[in-house]
Amino acid sequence: MRSNPFTGRYLFHVHTPYTDGQVPVRAYFDLAVRAGLDRLIFLEHIRAAPRYDVTQFVAEVRGCAAACGVEALVGFEAKVLPGGALDISEEHLALAEVLGIAEHGFPADFDLWRASIRRALDASYGSRPVVWVHPGLWLKKHGLLEAREQEYLALLALAQGAGVKVEMNRRYGLVPGHLAGEVAPEALVRGADAHRLEDAEAAVAEMRSASG
Ligand SMILES: [Zn+2]
Ligand SMILES: [Zn+2]
């Protein structure tokens, strides 16, 4: 397995029409060529029983990478289920070069949420990079980010202790900017969570202005 892919000019966490994104796989590669990116890291939604052809998605990414001469990784964004398991099959986990752990559609039960996230962050997923994406989205959606900040910080620390990277998610503003210092620089990754081409282009523009 490669070393850290979250270095240089990378665009991470992009969605395509295979799920709820509006940007075809090829269009991300065209952007990567235009912008001189080093690497595309796809992070497509997955379920244990996905409603799209995962094999076709992976083949399309590989084909475009070869045709465009742009490095690309295939990742999947899997949601945490009550209890802490991820909603992804072993077959598809095996295809994931990057694994995203997400909070989507989780029941409105704080203790269950915390226990499940803890277990998910602490589990072993092999040697692939694992990223807690839009961390704390459940808290944000329930208006609990402030009231549960201590528990949130403990989870951010747990993630880093377990070797899980933490996303600075552009779409949801998570990790909140004032808490970004709680994440070690080597654990922090930028995620566009792009669904439209404008999202991806804006993320690339911000990366350029940040790196000077
Ligand atoms: Zn998500
Ligand atoms: Zn996403």
SSE blueprint and pairings:
Blueprint: E1 10-12, H1 25-35, E2 39-45, H2 54-68, E3 71-79, H3 90-93, E4 98-102, H4 110-122, E5 130-132, H5 137-141, H6 149-161, E6 165-169, E7 188-191, H7 197-211
Parallel strand pairs: 1-2, 2-3, 3-4, 4-5, 5-6, 6-7
The structure holds zinc ion (2 copies).
Low-confidence stretches: none
Bound molecules: zinc ion
Strand order of the largest sheet: 1-2-3-4-5-6-7
CATH topology (fold) name: TIM Barrel
H/E order of the elements?
Answer: EHEHEHEHEHHEEH
CATH top-level class: Alpha Beta
Measured between the Cα atoms of the first and last residue, the distance is: 30 Å
Which term fits the overall shape? globular
The CATH architecture category equals Alpha-Beta Barrel
Short summary:
Helix content is 36%, strand content 17%. It has 212 residues and is an alpha/beta fold.
Feature tags:
212 residues, alpha/beta, 7-stranded parallel beta sheet, binds zinc ion
